[in-house]
Amino acid sequence: MKMKRFASVFFILALVLSLVAVPLAAPAEEGDSAPVMEVAAKAALLVDGDTGEVLYAKNEHDELYPASITKVMTALLVLEAVDSGKLSMDEQITVTATALEGLADDGSSANIKEGETMSVENLLYCMLVVSANEACNILGERVSGSVDAFVERMNQRAEELGCANTHFVNATGLHDPKHYTSAWDIYLITKEAMGHPDFMTICNTAQITVPATNLSEARVLHTTNYLLSNWRAIGYTYSAARGIKTGSTSDAGYCLVSSAVEGSRSLISVVLGAERVSLTDGKTQTQSFSETKRLFEWGFNNFSRKTILTQADMIQEVPVSLSKDVNYVVAHPASDVEALLPNSLEPESLKRRVTLYQDTVEAPVEKGDVLGEVTLSYEDRDYATVKLLAYDSIEASRLLVLQKNVKDFFSKTIVKVILVILLLLVLLLAGWKLTVGRRRYRYGRKVGRGRNYRGRRR
Is 245 annotated as a binding residue? Predict the structure, then answer.
């Protein structure tokens, strides 16, 4: 009896443990997305540098103050002027008094003076390495004739790049309530500027000596970007970092747009409105740098590029008409497709959504004809869309084509109208002949009797 009770209790305990074990194990099976990331800033963005895939976004379209990140747009316009031949990197510019007007006394500066002569290239180094405000106005005045005209061009260029939440008031980033942009717009501007090799060379410079000028001894410039150098602060350097531009004011907070390269992969990040906080050990931390570093590490460690489709994949059989040999053609991807996926998400888990341009295609079909497209997605995110091509060529049957052409010809509205009109004419003609024939027959008999009438006998 005791053994039976013991067995019953053991069975119940085993059943309870088995029920409890299932939900405990479930979280381990969930892993199709990257670990949750939260950035301590007003806005943040992390984008794959090669494909433009967004890995992380927080308030990326909010209008915020960019501070000296504004200088990325300033540099872009200068480099575009160089590319167009309007000026050259080694051109010497003499500083005017108007170029130095309106600058804050406590703003970032390389102490460039009125009447000093410096090359375009060295002015760019002053602007992008130590964030010299006067260099922005000097170059802007040279490019557009005046600083105001240059700022107008900045806004025009922002609109051309698709920046929907940007308005510039100056070329430096000095605070103004009407001077704002967004993390996404900064990405668009920076991505465009990165297409100029000189831009990345200058932005990625940790230290440089600018040669002496007519009014100054040689200047040694140290970058304001803590990710590139520990000259200004220690504990932030990141070996994968490549540039780009810092910015900070009391209203904007601490801002940074940067890029990083690890192996064959590259990332672009934007952090706006971060803070400088005190740590428990008494040290301070400028979070625009620490959060950018965390973003890069998160992006590199939790995502990898995977092949999600190959040209050899047979996606779908597409019905074919007007062929006597086959009734379908196989559709395959136009190219191999790669996508940046969370490490735990395998390509086999992606859902394929096929869109055919025609439910049935007509022969002849040539190999490589575009039949539709396929989109690969997971949950609510589309990872790639690629065209679908015909795998083989298919000949058409002449007889079937002829039958179709005849059928199509007689199915045209104009042809149907003409046929109806012809039919009506035939019916009218038949009716007319029938009516006229009867009349002729009737009157013919009367005329005959009149011709044989011989008169009345008396």
Answer: yes
Please check whether residue 71 is in contact with residue 127, taking contact to mean a CB–CB distance below 8 angstroms: yes
pLDDT in tens, 222-240: 999 999 999 999 999 999 9
What is the total residue count of the chain? 458
| Residue from 108, 131, 182, 290 carrying the catalytic annotation | 131
Examine residue 144 and state whether it is found in any structural domain, yes or no. Answer: yes
Label residue 433 by pLDDT band (50, 70, 90).
confident
Q: Is 68 a catalytic residue?
A: yes
User: Tokens representing 51?
Assistant: 């494909």
Does the active-site annotation cover 306? no
285 lies in some domain: yes
Are residues 327 and 291 located together in one domain of the fold? no
Closest CA to 272 of 136, 133, 72, 49: 72
418 exposure class (CB count in 10 Å sphere: 0-12, 13-18, 19+): exposed
| Lowest-pLDDT range of 12-16, 82-86, 115-119 | 12-16
Task: Give a yes or no: residue 66 inside a domain.
Answer: yes
Total number of domains constituting the chain: 2
71 labelled catalytic: yes
Residues 190 and 328 in one domain: no
Structural domain includes residue 411: no
Same domain? For 217 and 265 the reply is: yes
Per-residue pLDDT at 402:
67
Other beta carbons within 10 Å of 443: 10
CA dist 379 and 361 (Å) reads 31
The pLDDT tens digits of the residues spanning 399-422 come to: 765 666 667 677 778 867 887 888
Give pLDDT tens digits for 299-335: 999 999 999 999 999 999 999 999 888 999 999 999 9
Alpha carbon distance 329, 326 (integer Å): 8
367, 291: one domain: no
What six digits make up the tokens of 37?
Answer: 């990331």
CATH number at residue 348: 2.60.410.10
**Same domain flag for 276 and 393:** no
Q: How confident is the model at residue 442 (pLDDT cuts 50, 70, 90)?
A: low
Q: How far is CA 48 from CA 59, 115, 193, 337, in A?
A: 18, 44, 16, 16
Q: Given the residues 8, 33, 42, 71, select the one marked as catalytic.
A: 71
Assess whether 298 and 340 both reside in one domain.
Answer: no
Structural domain harbouring 347: 310-398
The DSSP element (H or E) to which 195 belongs, if any, is: none
- 168, 173, 179, 183: CA torsion to nearest 10: 90
Which residue of the set 42, 68, 108, 144 is catalytic?
A: 68
* pTM, full prediction: 0.79
